[in-house]
Amino acid sequence: MKILITGGTTFVSKYTAEFYVKAGHEVTVLNRGSRKQIKGVNHICCERSQAADFLKGRHFDAVFDITAYNENDIRHIIESGVTFDDYIFISSSAVYPETNEQPFNEEQQCGYNNFWGDYGINKINAERYLMQQFPGAYILRPPYFYGIYDNLYREAFPFDCAMQDREFYIPGDGSLNLQFFNVSDLCRFMSIIHKKHPSRHIFNVGNSEPVTIKEWVGMCYKAAGKEARFISVDKTAYPLWNYFCFRDYEYFLDISAQSELRSETLPLQEGLQEEFNWYRDNPDSIYNRKPYIEFIDKELKK
């Protein structure tokens, strides 16, 4: 295939570009050139707002739009003069209001989510514009991504704690549930969509089972060859964001439609092991390292 990927230099888009290069496809990435490019890609160095200067008259078998956050981001590609057979947009589960019945499914009304704010609304507007302009497009709504090239301080936080042989300060009893999706599973699912062209055009994607934050931390420690030791923190005493890497928000996606096309996903422990092995060798990869450990040492270790 001839594939256009927006981004291509950080986390999800970077992994996607590498995945399809390794699979033998002709991959073009569109980004500002602020970071090193994946070996083997064709690079269009520009802002999305300049896309028409570089894409007009070009054709791709598929556009994988991974870095669009709002309607204008979609508009710049759609109105650039580029043509394509398939357009797959990576949206977000933030489009579902927290008041919806869970598990969230694709037929539910989208709307403002108090935990995600304008981020979710901007994704809704991007989805709406895309489907108005190109009804054949596909929209994927993931929960939390994880995997190789993750540049967020999420798995890296318990990895650091494990490597430093630290106790882990867990919010409350650690029963908050999370749902994940590995970047490799995303790529495999996009390939299935391009190959099969299902009649459904909006998919929740994710692992079939949630895990508690305590289970997740334990898995991260295990990937580092350690066993987690927990200290419970009263959730009313300190805001979670001071010492923990997820919001105090529990939700779950119904991924039945995804499972009809592909039921298998990478086992979470296996995916975390891959991510740890990569992170151990690339500790400077985190985009914005949060001072959780500093806060714990100053405020919680008393």
* Continuous helix count: 10
3D shape: globular
Radius of gyration: 20 Å
- Per DSSP E runs of 2 or more residues, the count of β-strands stands at 13
Strand order of the largest sheet: 3-2-1-4-5-6-11
Instruction: Name the CATH architecture of the largest domain.
Output: 3-Layer(aba) Sandwich
Task: Kindly list the characteristics that best describe this protein.
302 residues; Rossmann fold; 34% helix; UDP-galactose 4-epimerase, domain 1; seven-stranded parallel beta sheet; 13 strands
Task: Give a structural overview.
This protein is α/β, with parallel strands linked by helices and 302 residues long. It has two domains: 2-146 and 182-204, Rossmann fold; 156-179 and 208-251 and 260-300, UDP-galactose 4-epimerase, domain 1. It has helices spanning 11-22, 52-55, 71-78, 118-133, 156-163, 183-196, 213-223, 256-261, 268-281, 292-300; strands at 2-6, 26-31, 42-45, 59-65, 83-90, 138-141, 144-146, 168-171, 177-178, 180-182, 202-204, 211-212, 230-233. A seven-stranded parallel β-sheet has the order 3-2-1-4-5-6-11. A two-stranded parallel sheet has the order 7-10. Helix 1 crosses helix 6 and helix 5 (156-163) crosses helix 7 (213-223). It starts with a strand and ends with a helix. The relative contact order is 0.13.
What would a concise description of this structure say?
The chain is α/β, with parallel strands linked by helices. Helices cover 34% and strands 18% of the residues.
